[in-house]
Amino acid sequence: MRLLVLTAGALWVRDGDSVDLGACALPGLIRTAVSEHPTMRVRQLDLPADDGEWAQAVRRELADRNHAGVVAARDGRRWQPKLTPLAETETETVTAPVRTGGRYLVTGGLGGLAVEIAGHLLAAYGVRLLLVGRSTVDGAKADRLAELSALGDVDYVQADVADAGALEAAVASAEARWGHGLDGVLHLAAADPTGQWAELERHTLANEAAATFAEQYRPKVSGTLAVAAVLDRRPDASLVLFGSVNGEFGGNSFGAYAAASCFLVGFAEYWRHERRRSVKCLAWSMWTDVGVNAGRPVEAARRRGFRAIDPDAGLRLFLDAMAAPGHYLLLGLDLANPTIVADLGPGGVHAGELLVAYAPDGVDPGVVRAAIAAGIRDAVVPVRLVALPRIPRGVDGSVDTERLLLDTAPGRRRRTPAAPRSDLEREIAGVWSAALGRTAIGRDDSFFELGGNSLRATRLLALVDDRLGVRVSTQELYESPTVAGMAAAVRERRLVNSKESAR
Question: Which residue has the higher pLDDT, 452 or 37?
């Protein structure tokens, strides 16, 4: 099955393009659909402003039966978004991220990430801050505000960032107190999506509720537009948008969150190219020990190529990003991860070796070498021959390149899987084999190292529920991602269920 979605103005490709703010969130949904439905060919074609080019562009895309993802048509050519690594030397210049002693609005209130950023700006640059958030100031948040106030001049106003009138009133009041206009906005406000981990299947695009989109869009879409209304009256003020790498890569069962972050990218293009305003859009991987991700497992994100970022590293990345060229930066990516490599532009990928993987099935390696000798004779990089028990394949039968590269990584430790120790572990290992397409599953093998992701987690947990009659949560799988760990969770759940039945 193929699905071609046509848009105009969803992507900024070159000078002269106009961004349609009503369509620029769509690439996040398309990328999510691609990851949720690997057997479909889901593609977005962004058409040029000249509608005379539309028919030819659509015919060309319909003729391509293989491509999936996001592309744009301009002047008879196909354009595809690609990433360019930023050289470390480009961020060595020490440039203040804000104006020393400046006046700034920080949305996101007293959330963990906003507090980390605000505390650094107060201590290092002597700024005066207006924090805006929806929460009342009590308990832990009162303590956070007291800590920030000890560092410098901080005002907190309880308001919904999507309420343009309330936001304007809060800024105008702060400016009157400061005796000076606003210098910039750091827009960190976001809706917490982590509750979706408990019910991944319910949050796929096919099942997602409009209420989830409304919840995610309010701070990122409506909130950004409210901030823009404030900045319309302050033409010299800068803007920094905080989003997620999910806007660039999509997210299984997190389509609304991905689309909301993708909107920020489109808005940044519009604000910079059409409004000629100062803007940075920073798309982050996963902050740990702070904010909504505090205490959450990181393996799922790490396997996708998203590094875990602790607060100290996050502040360093923030400073580097503010000094770096470009207005849209993705922070915390693992450039060696196959998923990320696939999205790098030609200038960001360099061949280090030629990998030849095969499943021997009794064939001598010398025979394989002889068979490929002619083809690799003129190779300009080293050739590495790797034997695997089986070549990993996706649900559509094609080679799973990502898993293949992970299985054959030079640093990967290969060992004989530890056999399951009990009937329950053996039963669970069989379910894992069916869900992951693996023949040999050890009791201590990590779900993620075996090629697991959120889509396969949904399939696995459904099989566990069906075959074992026990519902294991995604959180439990991610916290103990082994057969042994799942067996312990199943035993505990059965014990709880038996006690409840005895009452």
Answer: 37
The CA–CA distances, whole Å, from 335 to 87, 89, 304, 331 equal 12, 17, 11, 11
Q: What is the pLDDT of residue 32?
A: 96
Tell me if 405 sits within 8 A of 391, measured CB to CB: no
Look at residue 27 and tell me whether its pLDDT is greater than 80. yes
- Comparing C-alpha atoms, which of 176, 177, 277 is closest to residue 224? 277
Residues 432, 477 contacting (CB under 8 angstroms): no
Chain CA centroid to CA 325, Å: 22
Residue 61 and residue 64: Cα distance in Å, rounded? 5
Distance CA 346, CA 338 (A): 15
Residues 162 and 298: their CA atoms lie apart, in Å, by: 31
* Residue for token pair 């969130």: 25
Q: Where are the alpha helices (DSSP H) in 342-482?
A: 365-376, 401-407, 423-436, 454-468, 474-479
Domains observed in the chain? 2-79 (no CATH), 99-189 (3.40.50.720), 351-407 (no CATH), 423-502 (1.10.1200.10)
Q: Which two tokens stand for residue 452?
A: 């697991």
Cβ contact 157:132 at 8 Å: yes
**Sheet strands (E) in 307-420:** 308-309, 328-331, 354-358, 383-387
CB atoms within 10 A of CB 95: 10
Neighbouring residues of 206: CB distance < 8 A, sequence distance ≥ 6: 36
| End-to-end Cα distance, the chain | 51
Averaged pLDDT of the chain? 89
Reported as a single tens digit per residue, the pLDDT across 31-72 is 999 988 888 899 999 999 999 999 999 999 999 988 899 999
CB 186 within 8 Å of CB 107: yes
pLDDT for the residue numbered 92: 47
Question: β-pairing, 103-107 with 41-47?
Answer: unpaired
Q: What is the pLDDT of residues 1-18, one digit of tens each?
A: 899 999 999 999 999 999
pTM (predicted TM-score):
0.82
Nearest to 221 by CA among 182, 255, 266: 266
Q: Establish how many alpha carbons lie within 13 A of residue 326's alpha carbon, considering only the half-sphere containing its beta carbon.
A: 18
Q: How far is CA 295 from CA 246, 291, 475, in A?
A: 20, 9, 11
Q: How confident is the model at residue 421 (pLDDT cuts 50, 70, 90)?
A: very high
Top pLDDT among 210 and 325 is at 210
Phi, psi angle pair for 60, to nearest 5°: -65, -40
Nearest to 166 by CA among 116, 95, 84, 230: 230
Place 88 in a pLDDT band, splitting at 50, 70 and 90.
low
